[in-house]
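User: Structure tokens for this complex, please. No commentary.
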Amino acid sequence: MEVIRKYKMPRELPILLFLIAMCAVLATTKSTFLSSDNLRAMGTDAAGIGILAVGMTAVIITGGIDLSVAAMLALSALVGGGLISGGQTAAGCGATLATGVACGAFNGGLITLGRMPPIIATLGALYIIQSTATLYSGGQVVYIDNRLSLLGGGFVPLVVTLMVFVAGHVVMRFTRLGRHVYAIGGNEESARLAGISPARIKMAVYMGAGLLAGLAALVTMGINNTFQANDVSDYMLGAIAAVVIGGTSIMGGEGSVPGTMIGVGISTVLRNGAILVGLDARWTQAVIGAAIVIAAIADRLRRR
Amino acid sequence: MIKKLTTMCAVLLALIVALGGCGKPEEKSSKPGKDKRTIVFVFKLVGIPYSNACRKGAEQAAKDLGVNVEFTGPAKGGDVSGQIRIIENQISRGVDAIVISPNDPNSVKPVIEKAMAKGIKVFTWDSDAPDTQRIFYVAAADDVGIGSDIMDQLAKDMGGKGKVGIMSGSQGALNLNQHVDGVLEALKKYPDIKLAKPLLYNNDQPQLAQSGMAGLLQAHPDLGGIACVSSPGPPGAARAVIAAGKTGKVKIWGLSLPSENRQYLKDGVVNGLILWDPGKLTYLTAKLVNDYLDDIQPVDGSVIEDIGKLSVSDDGVVIMPGVVITKENVDEFDF
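Assistant:
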């Protein structure tokens, strides 16, 4: 008994098994599931939300949340996309990333200097940034004339997303910044007493989330070749859902980037699988909701 | 203590000034002048090209008719409660008429009743709320007819045989569901065309339009065409078809804007679009509503300059004729 209690099941294991089971069922019943066309389509589908979800994972591990990620993506895409459509591709890419970082710094500033709860700060930021995006673009579509097709074609979106996951995992698991993120999420007061500056860490994490929103904007523009302000309004909830399904605790201090990757995998495979088996699309969201609830229950059982 | 009180007073004062400041431009418009009539359009969402085109029509109507015509709506797609809040605000402002394109036909029923009870005339355009007290509905072609037109064109390009998919936008929008009904209705005329399941919903997100279509191409490798009934559909389906290297093998017809499909039409990925000019639709609606407030009812068969012949049915549905857009005429349209 003592031995069993000592063994701590990795938090990602149940959802990983769930994902594998889903893939196994689909692969055996639908021959096209593992075709390269389908894998490429799923990779493209997962890219935007996947990249956002890496930043969201770090944010949630600090005990915070970022409701503005999709809005940051939209504003970055419209600011940078304007330049790219005018032929200044390099400057436009830089502006896209810079806008993301600036938005992230705005969030970080509200939370650290303004001492606002993250949910309130980023809720405000969501509305401010989204409406800036709508006003900035005048509601018009930005056309980028295939100038980012390198980022959006073939397996590139999937590869970029996987690279972001690897980088995110390395930062969170093997760097001092990563350890400090876990520390302040676990117990901010004792982290402070241990000499960590929560404000600096949080600032870095929210700016990182902004940077990734900028990167997601580039990939999304590469895929769609056009962008308009409302294109990604589903992405914020999609990213949070992936992080939560991936076993990251919404209370902070616990969670992992690989878990989030599995979470993104589950929602992507679900969407794709539903179409392959001919399931009415209206069920897909209910199944994703059920996955969130099951993940929460599994987390609870594990903690006992 | 006194210091604290002073600070609190100062903060309060600042807040009042700030709130007052914010409120001011609202207040100006919140009491519409007695002599100038105010008509407010409440769309499903603002910030997309379609709603911008509607807004332009409303602005033009304001100039031509000499009345206040405003255009508003929630900032987020499918925001049912946000749209109701906006309508509530317009009711308390006491405008003369509210014209709604509802995100959900049933949930606007109480708020329409409330407005009518206060003497505010309520109409719908673009999307209807038929079981409510709305006075009339101005539709761009009829909603079922658009769907069957799309299917008829598609069937022609498919040579009357093969497998066809359907892509809609959000699941709760009445006009989209009626477009889908129209597609299904027309499909019965073509015994050799089979429906490829499931029905796709893109939730007005281009990414979902593309990935949904990619999935459908996997589920049905022999897919011959897709009927898209909302605007992100055709360009999203086109991207998936290009990625799968099936340009020309899968025909795409749908309801979408020329500006979003220009290149796809020219490249032969999208075969054609059926639509109307949303600016003209909104302009026409403003004109008909303004006439109604002057006690002039819309008349069946009347011809409106630049728009064409209206059809008006007994249940208060006014229909504006639609247009077919292919690569031949796409450059005539700048929206």
